[in-house]
Amino acid sequence: METAKEVGASALWAGFNVQMETSANVFREAASLATQIQGETIPTDKSDTLSMETTLRQPVGPILSIVPWNGTAVLAARAIAYPLVCGNTVVFKGSEFSPATHALITQCVQEAGLPAGVLNYLNSSPDRSPEIADALISAKEIRRINFTGSTRVGSIIAQKAAQHLKRCLLELGGKSPLIVLDDADIDAAVKAAVFGSFLFQGQICMETSTERLVVDEKIADEFVAQFAEKAKRLSAGDPCVTGDCIIGPMETVSPNSRERINGLFKDAIDKEPQLPAAAWPNVRSCRPRSWITSNPTCRSTMETRKPSGPITVVDSLQRETEGNSHCTTRSTP
Amino acid sequence: METAKEVGASALWAGFNVQMETSANVFREAASLATQIQGETIPTDKSDTLSMETTLRQPVGPILSIVPWNGTAVLAARAIAYPLVCGNTVVFKGSEFSPATHALITQCVQEAGLPAGVLNYLNSSPDRSPEIADALISAKEIRRINFTGSTRVGSIIAQKAAQHLKRCLLELGGKSPLIVLDDADIDAAVKAAVFGSFLFQGQICMETSTERLVVDEKIADEFVAQFAEKAKRLSAGDPCVTGDCIIGPMETVSPNSRERINGLFKDAIDKEPQLPAAAWPNVRSCRPRSWITSNPTCRSTMETRKPSGPITVVDSLQRETEGNSHCTTRSTP
């Protein structure tokens, strides 16, 4: 419920993520690494001596983990569990948009019995966040940086880390395509596509999410029709009131989400006026729902930017002539 | 001879490095990787299905390799061979201080039969180098950056790469210590220490080089006396005339080397007036030779900056009480 209030997560998304089921598994899986952290014995080219090169993997010290609000619990669990299991301490900078959820996760982990100082939680108002991240990255005590979030901010974090020659591990936005070939089980493909496109309002970028659907042109019309029909039936609501809605609000975190998503959509239509839109209900409503476009050209911003919302591009392709090139675009910073 | 002229390499260093013996072995070893580039089959937690995750390692495209003048041939070989063996093409930016040597290496590799465009060489005057590196890192065609050089420039390269979210592989300056315990064979240790400290005027940072000697106090006096004696006998000269000299000139590449090294030395003496200097011949000569200091304190710049010259710090330590802490300082950007 905390997470429904903070980030508009429906019961479906909370069930996958926030209620600690998946997150607890992350800790269990991470724990299994503890005895698997191996160094190496490396051969040398001095065959006539007993010389030997040996590497050891050792903890480096405090890790700064910065996580977003969208995979609220599971991304926090990952950013905490793995550094700890490898013997480091963690400075966990929670998202400004889900401070209560991230504080709760910290509390759960600390109550499991960590010594003082091993897991350190902090949060801030959104306007002070860049300044605080900067100070932490610059601090000589921080040895590595782990960031999950937008491509734009990831590039800034990486630049600051590079200034101090600190390694960073980034998980940024993607444009992950779902490819549907002409021999696919269309029902199953539509089901997976709807799930991947609209889970948590399309605001995630994990293995279950998809930003683009690339469909063989032989089945594209049939696929798009079924996809639109299913998408239109997704229930929208306020998860604090109706937890079983599928599409929750986006304005909880980003008040300008509606304008941004409508802007992307309008941009696509402006550039490709004959764009066959299978369904675009509620474009002007307060709460965006599911929209589908097919065949916007590369001129459209929507095709290269991660929309982070309930909007999906369908490309149909001629399998023989176009190959994989449709699937290689990536999110731009 | 080209390399003696360009970077002041003696026959000893050239023999190890520049005459393509070591470099040819780098290509042979890299070639053996070609059939060892493996993806992975990753287990999933869906035990009741046939689902499977498979990763493939694929070439990414053009790699920018920027190399320094100090490991003239061997560092160039490494920066060319490994990306090529992994199926990429290489834009090889040679050092401004060894353009002829780097052009020669490129020519050798190209004559081995590479198709056009696979290995691309460029060089420039020193003043245009930052601008050219910047343009190359920004170019969308360049996918990865490989840089060997100073810590300071490495940080700049990493920041530019981060701006475009391009991965880079950096090998920068170190403060690699040679540790001599009280049961060491002192003759052998002195021999290794002199080799590691003064090969190519101490301007390298490879496994054979050492920036600091950490010696157990029980044998420190004896070690320093022998080290100083051996160091004083190293012959200095111009390798274009006397190829068998050990210490060549540094001014070929950096006209201000003498002032810089003398400054580091003076700084150490100023901060620690009672510094027992075992040998510092020719401080004011045109051509610096071998200097040794023992026990400068942490206040001294020389202890944390990579000197890139024939100057070496000897720390004596009490093994039981001080442990490894002496060996963990690193080069600062």
TrEMBL record, chains A, B:
<comment type="similarity">
    <text>Belongs to the aldehyde dehydrogenase family.</text>
</comment>
<dbReference type="Pfam" id="PF00171">
    <property type="entry name" value="Aldedh"/>
</dbReference>
<dbReference type="InterPro" id="IPR029510">
    <property type="entry name" value="Ald_DH_CS_GLU"/>
</dbReference>
<dbReference type="InterPro" id="IPR016162">
    <property type="entry name" value="Ald_DH_N"/>
</dbReference>
<protein>
    <submittedName>
        <fullName>Salicylaldehyde dehydrogenase</fullName>
    </submittedName>
</protein>
<keyword id="KW-0560">Oxidoreductase</keyword>
<dbReference type="InterPro" id="IPR016163">
    <property type="entry name" value="Ald_DH_C"/>
</dbReference>
<dbReference type="InterPro" id="IPR016161">
    <property type="entry name" value="Ald_DH/histidinol_DH"/>
</dbReference>
<dbReference type="InterPro" id="IPR015590">
    <property type="entry name" value="Aldehyde_DH_dom"/>
</dbReference>
<keyword id="KW-0520">NAD</keyword>
<dbReference type="GO" id="GO:0016620">
    <property type="term" value="F:oxidoreductase activity, acting on the aldehyde or oxo group of donors, NAD or NADP as acceptor"/>
</dbReference>
<feature type="domain" description="Aldehyde dehydrogenase">
    <location>
        <begin position="6"/>
        <end position="276"/>
    </location>
</feature>
